[in-house]
Amino acid sequence: MLTGVAYTTWLERKLIGRIQNRWGPTRVGPFGLLQPLADGIKFILKEDLLPDYVHKGLFILAPMLALVMSLISIAVIPFGETITIAGHTTALQISGITHAGGGISDINIGLLIILGVTSIGVYGIALAGWSSNSKYSLLGALRASAQMISYELALGLSLVGVLLLSGTLSLREIVSSQSGHWLLAGHDTHVPHWFIFPQIIAFFIYLSAAYAETNRIPFDMPEAETELVAGYHTEYSSMKFAMFFMAEYVNMFTVACLASLLFFGGWHGPQLGFLPPLAQSLLPVVYFALKVFFFIFLYIWIRGTLPRFRYDQVMTFGWKFLLPLAIANIIVTSLIVAWGA
Amino acid sequence: MVHQVLFIVFGLICVAGAINLLVQRHPISSALSLVVVMASLALIYLLLGAEFVAAIQVIVYAGAIMVLFVFVIMLLNAGAEERTRGSRIALFVGVPGVVVLAGTVGWMLVSGSGRLGTVSISSSNFGETHNIAHLLFRDFLLPFEITSVLILIAIMGAVVLGKREN
Amino acid sequence: MVPLSWYLILSGILFSLGVLGFLLKRNIITIFMSIELMLNAVNLSFVAFANYWNTHPVADKSIVPLSGQVFVFFVMVVAAAEAAVGLAIIISVFRTRETLNVDRVNLLKL
Predict the structure, then answer these.
(1) Does residue B60 fall inside a structural domain?
(2) B34 contacts in C (CB within 8 Å)?
(3) Which of A91, C37, C49, C103 could form a disulfide with B86 if both were Cys (CB 3.0 to 4.6 A apart)?
């Protein structure tokens, strides 16, 4: 996971460089592939400042809280069915339990846990700005917290459409309900039963709200490098700054995983029968990884392309556009589900 | 056995957080200890088989209401408390009153604990989301709709009260 | 196997600590947080009884066993509404009086 985060930074620097018509890291190792290693060594060796005027307890707690909360949400994400090595079957999920008969127990409220952990993650940013005891940090932290709690609503409501279609909060069961094909008036269209097709509006609401939750461009106001002297993490140096950085990328990864689990069918994909059994059980993981990679690529692509919203534009967009649209989506979806039942 | 150990651990964290809320001078430390109390209460709800309520406790209480508190404390830049005349009177009158209240409730519960039974982690998952949804949207539909109106009134009140007069 | 009275005693302890905070503290926001602590203590009693009625068969058929958890939902909604309005009042008090100390806000005249 953490290696994935490190190499996502490499990918981002390369892609942004290419979008901006320059090379990106090329010096350290072939194609700059050892750049994250160099960055890591730099962060560890840099002096870890603890200024006198900060509130010491909260200053140290805030980045740890942000990182721990991001990592907890990875624990409930399933990335495959089961894998059987040397007769021992394991469920491909950190918090999944495999029964003797081959069934997998998942947490019943997996989706709610991810939403709850996102809500607690707001504290990391708010406390970071507060404890730094400086005007820029406080302003950045207040804006970031307001933005994050505003978009949590649209995020949660956009997922209700998926819940209506699948009828469960457990992530593994949501993916299972996306197997098979859509039936149109009894005929089997060969379109996979993914929830992106009926819930395309919810998908766009989810992506916009998730970009705002992870504080990425175009909702980058809290970390605006050119505007607020780097916002709420102005006073942080070396490892603590690296922890905020890592928390942001892990959050990006969680959003990408959730988008592929809830809207794109998780690990479902064409079955290739000619592969040996071990490769066959790894094939779902490959499909999942491809979908997650697509979403991370989308994140980086949008970062390189769009300008940054102003703060009042961010708030208007969240409250006056996304929230009514999400509620309308819930109403339409529930009417269709109730009429079809 | 494990149930008792877990309950005692989480219960001690709850009480420690609540005492920290009272002892701390700066409101932000009190707010953070209240968040710790709410998180440990969510864990106790999980012990009691209420999984949906535990998730809601974290999302709504610890993740939204307390963020609002922390936000307001940061916005108003509240400093540490000072000792004023009223706080002395409250100390001499309030503490014995609360001790009497707590003692009465505690004595009643301890003496009546023989008639109440035990709570166990049961295998039947009664606290699942769809069970609560069945109750909420059938038997308790009217209170549910009334709470929606209540939230609407609260939103309007908060917006009106928060406006600056210019 | 934990006796139900232990949960109720914990709820009682938290409630009395909330009352103590409400009486002793002088900062408006801390008083408000003590009110939230009291509401949380009551929520714990509700959930404990919901579990109790679900695991022990209840003779009175008018008690819905899981209604304790539904009541927690309503208590949370009311607490959220009250927190929003109360904090808005606190902000407007702060704007006029410039202080958050309850003892200094004791006259109607500014």
Answers:
(1) yes
(2) 33, 36-37
(3) C103
ipTM exceeding the 0.90 mark: yes
What is the tally of structural domains in chain B? 2
The answer as to whether B116 is a domain residue is: no
| Three-class secondary structure assignment of chain A | CHHHHHHHHHHHHHHHHHHCCCCCCCCCCHHHCCHHHHHHHHHHHCCCCCCCCCCHHHHHHHHHHHHHHHHHHHHCCCCCCEEEECCEEEECCCCCEECCCCCEECCCCHHHHHHHHHHHHHHHHHHHHHHCCCHHHHHHHHHHHHHHHHHHHHHHHHHHHHHHHHCCCCHHHHHHCCCCEEEECCEEEEEECCCCCCCHHHHHHHHHHHHHHCCCCCCCHHHCCCCCCCHHHCCCCHHHHHHHHHHHHHHHHHHHHHHHHHCCCCCCCCCCCCCCHHHHHHHHHHHHHHHHHHHHHHHHHHHHHCCCCCHHHHHHHHHHHHHHHHHHHHHHHHHHHHHHC
Does residue B109 form part of some domain?
no
Fold of C4-104: Helix Hairpins (1.10.287)
Q: Of C6, C69, C81, which has the smallest distance from its Cβ to B7's Cβ?
A: C6
Residues 3..42 of B with a Cβ closer than 8 Å to A: which? 28, 32, 35
- pLDDT tens-digit readout, B61-99: 999 999 999 999 988 887 776 666 667 777 888 888 888
- Report the predicted TM-score, pTM, of the whole model to 2 decimal places: 0.90
Query: For residue B156, is it within any domain?
Result: yes
| Cβ within 8 Å, pair B22-C17 | yes
Specify whether B3 is located in the same domain as B74: yes
| pLDDT tens per residue, range B121-153 | 777 778 888 889 988 999 899 999 999 999 999
